[in-house]
Amino acid sequence: MKTVIVTGLSGAGKTQAMNCLEDLGYYCVDNMPPALIKSFVQLAANESTPIEKAAFAVDVRGGELFADMEKALEDLSASGIDYKILYLEASDRVLIRRFNETRRQHPLSKGESTLEGIKRETEILKNLRARADYVVDTSNMKVARLLEEVKDLITSGEGEKTFVINVMSFGYKNGIPLGADMVFDMRFIPNPYYIKSLRQLTGNNKKVRDYVMKHDVTKRFIEETPKLILELIPFYMREGKYNLNLCFGCTGGHHRSVAMANEMAEILRSKGKRITVEHRDL
Description:
Residues 1-154 form the RapZ-like N-terminal domain. Pfam families: PapZ_C, RapZ-like_N. Residues 164-282 form the RapZ C-terminal domain. This is RNase adapter RapZ. The chain has 2 domains: 2-162, 3-Layer(aba) Sandwich (Rossmann fold), CATH 3.40.50; 165-279, no CATH class. The protein contains 9 helices and 9 strands. The chain has helices spanning 14-23, 37-45, 69-78, 92-102, 114-131, 143-156, 206-213, 216-238, 256-270; strands at residues 2-8, 27-29, 53-57, 83-89, 134-137, 164-171, 182-185, 243-250, 274-279. The protein has a 5-stranded parallel sheet with strand order 2-3-1-4-5, sandwiched between helices. A 4-stranded parallel sheet has the order 7-8-6-9. Helix 1 (14-23) crosses helix 6 and helix 4 (92-102) packs across helix 5 (114-131).
């Protein structure tokens, strides 16, 4: 039986991930006591019509029952049950905003601030995060993109660690994206905005792209930067991080940053990397 354990920080998107797995044909159980996972898997395998795929959402909502998580995972491994752990997280700032929007209380806040609950939960889950097969940062993800990510990881990424590079363009006038790992300032490139024929176009247009890429400084940047990124990926993975948020900014987020984000995405994709692209301010 294919078994997926969905866990992570409260507010990071576990409900949406479970909905996606259910759409993929998984038998889904939310807030499952860890000690019962092994018994459920064994029972389901012995039915006349066995369940082929199951997913369990396990997190701190389980209270004292969640303390059995480490032992439950050891029992699964000892029984020869193959499972994958999908861990979802997001930045403190984004999680606080999500709790404020839904007007719900963090399960570990205990009458204190949401931030204190998040810190307490992060500490409790640190060992489980280290064991995760997939770690997904949902800070900059819309629901549709999260669902696509979960689908790709579970259906095509099983059996190996899957590293995803999220490429985003943005405008500095609207602020740096939350959750950015690397920020590249494209304002060193001459601005197409001051070319009358290019002003109303975007970096998705070939004319703007050609203008941005023709400069020697741009050519040097796209020659050296992918090397740096590719060399760093193994070190991120060693630290348990399996996605990288690359953000390219210019003044308005319409021309240089868009053209460079597209170019960098294509270069990294040609190196066999899994890529997502988002133009935040278009």
